[in-house]
Design goal:
By secondary structure, the chain is an alpha+beta fold. The protein has three domains: 110 residues, no CATH class; 41 residues; 93 residues, Chitinase A, domain 3 (Roll). The protein is 53% helix and 15% strand. The protein has a four-stranded antiparallel beta sheet. The longest helix has 27 residues.
Length: 263
């Protein structure tokens, strides 16, 4: 699993509820199926998951949860009776499910003991605001493979040919049919060589030298510029808190992975 996939999985685990069935105290019984007890804690966990998905905690939902767990228990018992739990692939899936519950418990515990502070959120907000800048740019470009091709386009522009017409030969399929128009964006939306050339332009001007990026060679024209209205700290505080918490979790996981002795 790649780091990105692992991070995504861990973020998902933050929203899960860990079953309390492993507590040392005697579990309260929800129902008994063929002599086997279904602990109430199992229902509590399933109910909490349904509530987190947007369902209201009603008597009807609790009845549905109870019935679902009874059905599951009946099926599970039938599977065990058929010896399916002894199959290697089934045993592996059961082990993964157990491991997932342990991971969820660890992540939830780590999150509780490492809360994100208001100061951290404010620092993150200011960092993002700084990267975005305070302007938005309406820009268009023409992307080609070779520097000499970009230089030739620039010469045609200097002679009065229209940017929109020349953009038809651009390598960028998303903008070539629209005269190279990329719409309104802030500087952080573009790779650094592109954004640096863009912000240096005056309104209505195009780059007089080809601009190199990992995508190829660009000719850039700045059509317009306006002040950017960014959301306030309070408006984005929940998203920033979750973003920072996810970072902390990923850092902890990476630390555990680095410390692990693997043979």
């Amino acid at each position: 699993m790649t780091r990105k996939l692992l991070a995504a999985a861990l973020i998902g685990l933050l929203a899960t509820t860990v079953s309390a069935e492993t507590r040392a105290d005697a579990p309260e019984t929800l129902a008994t199926v063929n002599g086997k007890v279904i602990p109430k804690a199992r229902a509590d966990a399933l109910l909490a998951g349904q509530v987190m998905q947007g369902r209201k905690d009603t008597e009807e939902l609790r009845k549905d949860v109870r019935e679902e767990l009874i059905r599951r228990e009946a099926i599970a018992q039938a599977a065990e009776k058929a010896g399916l739990d002894k199959k290697p692939e089934v045993a592996a899936q059961m082990m993964l499910a157990r491991q997932g519950a342990l991971i969820s418990a660890y992540i939830n515990d780590y999150v509780k003991s490492h809360p994100v502070t208001d100061a951290q959120i404010k620092t993150e907000y200011e960092s993002i605001r700084g990267a975005l800048g305070d302007k938005e740019y309406k820009v268009r470009h023409i992307l080609v493979d070779k520097e000499e091709d970009a230089a030739a386009i620039i010469e045609k522009l200097k002679k009065g040919e229209k940017f929109e017409d020349l953009a038809k030969d651009s390598k960028d399929p998303g903008s070539k049919e629209h005269g190279g128009d990329l719409g309104w964006s802030n500087q952080a939306a573009f790779v650094k060589p592109f954004s640096a050339a863009m912000v240096a332009l005056e309104k209505g001007k195009f780059t007089e030298k080809p601009v190199k990026s990992d995508f190829g060679w660009h000719v850039i024209q700045l059509d317009d510029i306006r002040d950017m209205k960014a959301p306030t700290l309070e408006e984005v505080k929940p998203q920033l808190s979750q973003r920072l918490q996810s970072k902390l979790v990923e850092e902890q996981v990476n630390s555990l992975r680095k410390a692990a002795k693997v043979q």
